Amino acid sequence: MAEVALENVTKVYPGDIVAVNDVNLHVADSEFLVLVGPSGCGKSTTLRLVAGLEDATKGTISIGERVVNDVPPKDRDIAMVFQNYALYPHMSVYKNMAFGLKLRGYPKEQIDQRVNETATMLGIQDLLDRKPKALSGGQRQRVALGRAIVRQPAVFLFDEPLSNLDAKLRVEMRAELSKLHRRLGTTMVYVTHDQVEAMTLGDRIAIMHQGIVQQIAEPLELYDRPANQFVAGFLGTPPMNFIPGRLEESAGQITFNEGSARIPLPQWAKEAMEAVPSREIIFGVRPEDAAIGSDGMLKAKVNIVEPLGDELIVHVSSDYHEMVIKAPARLRVKVDDLVGLNFNIDKTHLFDPETGKNVSLTRRGESR
Asked: Which of 16, 207, 249, 355 has its C-alpha lying 20 to 30 A from 171's C-alpha?
């Protein structure tokens, strides 16, 4: 087991394409850290830099107490699990799992022991004589995991390992990976574009965008206290609603003016007003923190109603903006209804439209 540290790491490809930009990242010993973000954000490149499959343009990469910038991948004491499994098609499951140990000169008895113990742990002990083409996607993924586990590395690196599986199998494999981490207690760095995987698997999550780490925190901290508008919009399904408008103050009362209505805000909004001198602001509210009723802070028209069994997803529009609301499944609402919207103001956020920064994180008399 080992810590992983990236200090001021940058990767620039020919043509001045900056894939990773001044990343600082510390993965604690035994931690499960997830790198998540949209396609092209630099997360897989960051993982490949740790693995030694890419060379850093600048910065320092350490595994344990050793700087590994100039250490070949095979000597970094890491094991990587790829999206496409990367199994040898002509070898049996046993030989696929044993191959790395055999190359390193382990005695046959030790190879047998490690392979059989790992196969039993993953529930693939009955598949050891099969070739990869005779396996399902989930079985192949378990073999790829097994091949990594038998090496007993200091760090596991996962590059979107579940993306080729169907939805049901992805849920099952997420649970298996969580159990595996608890059992092995090994440091794991996991790359995905799937926010559900990130939220359910990670001890902490690092959200990347355009090669830059936007925020690193525990899953609920990211969800409840996003550092900026990108993080707020990336996490959550449906995503957070963003409504541009203006902060106003009259007789000591601060309100958010969205164009057709003024929404009263608590006094903590004064700090946001001070942080954004122009008073132009982006009001953010998650779909579950808005409620539909006959009266409300804001009037809206129902455009679409999506029943999901346990809840409704309701698309509405005011005179100026469109929003998505999560509502109880039994709510009686239909297309073209005029409704009122109320917001859980203590769960709302205010973002600087110029920088995207969340200027409502520090709230007087409140710990969030």
From this structure: 207
Bridge partners of residue 33, in order along the sequence:
189, 204
pTM of the model: 0.90
Other beta carbons less than 10 A from residue 154's beta carbon:
19
Residue 126 token pair: 């009955």
263-280: per-residue pLDDT in tens?
999 888 888 888 898 999
**Are the CB atoms for 187 and 27 separated by under 8 Å?**
yes
Per-residue pLDDT band at 368 (split at 50, 70, 90):
very low
Is the bond preceding 238 in cis, omega lying within 30 degrees of 0?
yes
CA 66 to CA 89: how far, in whole Å? Answer: 35
CB count in 10 Å sphere of residue 69 = 14
Consecutive H or E run containing 219 = helix 219-224
Measured at the CA of 267, the angle between CA 262 and CA 273, to 5 degrees, comes to 70
Q: Looking at this protein, which amino acid is placed at residue 216?
A: I
Task: Give the pLDDT score at 129.
Answer: 94
- The C-alpha atoms of residue 151 and residue 202 are separated, in whole angstroms, by 23
How many residues does the structure list for the chain?
Answer: 368
Which residues make beta-bridge pairs with 79?
Answer: 156
Which of 199, 213, 208 has the alpha carbon at shortest distance from 171?
199
- Residue 305 token pair: 């109603």
- For residues 44 and 160, what is the distance between their CA atoms, to the nearest angstrom? 9
Among the ranges given (271-275, 303-307, 309-313, 329-333), the one the predictor scored with the smallest mean pLDDT: 271-275
